[in-house]
Amino acid sequence: MNMMNRTSELAAEAGGYAGRQKIYPKLAHGTFRKLKWGVMILTLGIYYLLPWIRWDRGPNLPDQAFLLDFAHQRLFFGPIEIWAQELYYITGLLILSALGLFLVTALAGRVWCGYACPQTVWTDLMVAVERIWQGDRNARMRLDSAPWTFEKVWKKAGTHISWLLIALATGGALVFYFRDAPTLAHELMTGDAPAVAYVFLGVFTGTTYLLGGLAREQVCIYMCPWPRIQSAMFDQDSLLVTYRDWRGEPRGAHKKGQTWEGRGDCVDCTACVTVCPMGIDIRNGSQLECIQCALCIDACDDIMRKVGRPEGLIAYDTFRNLEAPTHDKRMPLRLIRPRTLLYSALMLLVAGVMVTAWLHRGTMEVNVLHDRNPVYVQLSDGSLRNGFVVKVLNKEHDVRRVRLELDGLEGAQIQVVGFSGEQPVIDIVPDNLRALKVLVTVSAAARDKLAGASTGFRFAIVDAVDGTVMYHKAMFLGPNND
Amino acid sequence: MATKEIDSVTGVETTGHIWDGDLKELNKPLPRWWLYVLYATIVWAIGYWIVYPAWPTLNDTYTKGVFDYSQRGEVDKEVAAAKAAQSKYFELIAATPVADIEKNQELLPFVQAGGAAVFGDKCGPCHGKGGGGAVGYPNLNDDDWLWGGTPEAIQQTITHGIRSGDPEARDMAMPRFGIDGVLKPAEIVDTAQFVLSLSGHSTDPAAVERGKKIFADNCTACHGEDGKGNQEVGAPNLTDGIWLYGGKLADIEKSIETGRGGVMPYWTGRLDPVTIKMLAAYVHSLGGGK
User: CA A340, A344, A349 angle in degrees (round to 5)?
Assistant: First the structure.
């Protein structure tokens, strides 16, 4: 981990800080470049299109499949609807994602960094746009060192305007996740959108332009904590983008027809360095800056084919293979190892807990609050009364009709304030909470049968339509000296 | 002014200051980005002065800024918006007879929440936050009412108070039998024993016999011959187990001696009529209302 890119080298020489040395990544061709284009199309496609997918939930409900509705404290993911108090499902998802990241990193290194991280994807996109306006590596380097001519101005301006438009689309897409997309799109056009939408659009336009267009590799090297953690995730059997020095060294220029005896396969063409978006030399070994995007594999394989040597001088390989005493045959890949088993087991555990919790998630919740002042009331006929607030939460999108009953309190009567009759049927409106003031009265005759100052009983919330019952524990309180 | 000196080790200019004979400091410039951020904040601050309230002026006011923003103005706007949102409920309360408010499913939650807020503020100090009462301050959750427990009666009590000085206050008071010398101390004890006997708690049958006569002569006009009280005059029911000033012999003796005569303030003029109406419906909904 002691090797670095040009900026870090200069900083080390200066004993501290050095200005950034701009990196001009050359376009690579090959398997991994194609894979990265594919991942870019897939991830950007998901990001830009997801808010526009519709999902019919019935009347008065948002028909956006993926919606983070903070205003109404609901998260919608297709058929799944999460209320604010159920945010632990999101915590579970995040834990699952973190464990998944650990597992993938243990198996194949910084796959996330190299292919799927938004910083990588957007930087890749910004570089591609820059290449369209200004040409590939050499042309860009020439342009930067050239004096400011009209050609340079329009090429630069075109690049930055394109970046800003991409950034604007990025910020624009983000806000659609938080409000009905077609409505918000119309509001944004007419200037009627909430101020917070414009603020976040602006913030994400700015950060996308800044981080993806201008800062690029510096985000990974200086801002992101993940590179610091990753080395703890690797082991001897992790597949990492590796320069096989045993095969490449001693390196040196090679003329056509010269023998390959007594020298390595590396012809020191620096093709691997020129394509690197991080500006490092993979031949220096595993290093912090390397995001393992594998573009150097593409570049090197290209050269190896041209000079007639086998591909794979740079390849996904393990430390175990790299450090093996002989390299006649590759050692079999050990996917099942204690750490991969541990990560997998933890993922299964978290996923199992989440699925179990989800399957047992009721669509009705009940909470009972006992009145605190007064704790109990003595009535003129000698009976005792306790007041409760019974909160019934209906997560369904239809009206629930319920009856309140008592379970396990002899000689007691129940009365719901605002309703007449002993057991009125109460409508709980959809997607809402209803707080009911409930009075429970134990007659003077039944007072003696109470189990002292506090008697446990249960509220039974009976669905008046299908008869299902939900119980909630409560206490009936009375004076101490009885 | 010291002459410019270049540090031989680093090749960087020093500040020219020397401490302890040989200790020097390198004159390192601030990082550029830091400096530019500082300049940007200065420019930002100037813009801030223009659009927001910023500088005090000599005529004891301040520059208002072109946005005409003030935090107090924001609060006023929010309060006005909240009041506007509540207004439809208050209009509905004003239009609904007080006895029907509880039956109105749309209104009940608003009355329960709004009534609890006002009650906690204005009534809680004496009656307790939930109306549980204390010695001398009636429990509003039970069904024992001095002046009536119908929504209308409660509204009347809150509006004009009890012995409050309001012209329409509920003004009747129990005589001070002991202080004014109407009854002798021994007669007061006997009467108290009789009163206790009405709920089956007396301890001295002979005293009860003597007290019965005194009670008939002095108390039945208000409390009734059976001792069940009269809400027209605020006379409590003496036969139940509920005592405003305590149900022990000494408490009752004290009540007969002094007449008690607690005061409930009038709220007309301090709360608007609609709020009082909401409060009455809320108190009635506590569970003891008739």
Answer: 150
Q: CB-based contact (8 Å) between A157 and chain B?
A: no
Judge contact between A73 and A87, C-beta under 8 A: no
Q: How far apart are CA A168 and CA A163, in angstroms?
A: 8
The Cα of B181 is separated from the nearest Cα of chain A by a number of Å equal to 32
* Gap between the Cα atoms of A220 and A191, Å rounded: 36
Distance between CA atoms of residues A371 and A282, nearest Å: 70
Separation of alpha carbons B2 and B25, rounded Å: 13
Instruction: Kindly state which CATH superfamily the domain B185-258 is placed in.
Output: Cytochrome c-like domain (1.10.760.10)
Report CA Rg, chain B.
36
Using a CB-CB cut-off of 8 Å, the residues of chain A touching B242 are: 378-380
CATH of A364-477, one of 2.60.40.10, 1.10.3660.10, 3.90.550.10, 1.10.238.10: 2.60.40.10
Residue in chain B lying closest to A385 (CA):
B142
Collapsed DSSP state (helix, strand, coil) of residue B38 = helix
Mutate to test the interface with A, among B146, B226, B286, B290 (most CBs of A within 10 A): B286
ipTM: 0.79
Residue A482 has pLDDT above 60, yes or no: no
What part of B 111-170 touches A (C-beta under 8 Å)? 112, 128-133, 139, 141-144
**CATH for the stretch B74-168+265-285:** 1.10.760.10
| Domain residue extents for chain B | 14-51, 74-168+265-285, 185-258
Can you read off the two tokens belonging to residue A208?
């996308």
Buried b or exposed e, range A459-476, using 16+ CB within 10 angstroms: bbbbeeeeeeebebebeb
In which residue ranges of chain B is pLDDT below 70?
A: 1-3
d(CA A212, CA A220): 11
Give mean pLDDT, residues A401-412. Answer: 90
pLDDT-based confidence at residue A9 (cuts at 50, 70, 90): confident
B74-168+265-285 and B185-258: same fold? yes
Contacts of residue B128, defined as CB under 8 A and 6 or more positions apart, other chains included, come to A373, A374, B134, B137
Angle, in degrees to the nearest 10, between helices A150-176 and A195-207? 130
Beta strand ranges found along A336-381 (DSSP E): 364-370, 377-378
Q: Which two tokens stand for residue B158?
A: 């809150």
CB A404 within 8 A of CB A414: yes
Cβ-Cβ pairs closer than 8 A, A with B, add up to 68
The CA-atom distances, in angstroms, between A89 and each of A85, A94, A396 are 10, 9, 18
Q: How confident is the model at residue A161 (pLDDT cuts 50, 70, 90)?
A: very high
Amino acid at A299: A
The residue extents of the domains of chain A are 364-477
User: How far is the alpha carbon of B290 from chain A, nearest alpha carbon, in Å?
Assistant: 12
Give B64→chain A minimum CA distance, Å: 23
- Asked if A380 lies within 8 A of B141 by C-beta distance, the reply is no
One-letter amino acid identity for A229? I
What residue has token string 């555990």? A349
- Measured between beta carbons, the chain B residues lying within 8 angstroms of A17 are 31
The minimum CA-CA distance between B109 and chain A, rounded to whole Å, is 8
Q: Which of residues 428-467 of A touch B (CB under 8 A)?
A: 434-435, 437, 439
Which residue's entry shows tokens 């830009």? A48
Q: Pick the closest to residue A322 from A265, A264, A238 (CA basis).
A: A238
- Looking at residue A2, what is its pLDDT? 45
Place of tokens 């009705």: A364
List Cα–Cα distances, A464 to A70, A429, A439, A470, in angstroms: 33, 14, 20, 12
Asked if the Cβ–Cβ distance from A380 to B144 is below 8 Å, we say yes
Distance CA B70, CA A169 (A): 35
Could you give the CA distance from residue B216 to residue B195 in angstroms, rounded to a whole number?
Answer: 11
